[in-house]
Amino acid sequence: MKNIHQLPIIVEKDEDGFYVVECPIFSGCYTQGKTIDEALKNIREVIELCLAEKENQQILKNFNPQEISFHTLAYA
Question: The whole model's pTM is what?
Answer without folding.
Answer: 0.85
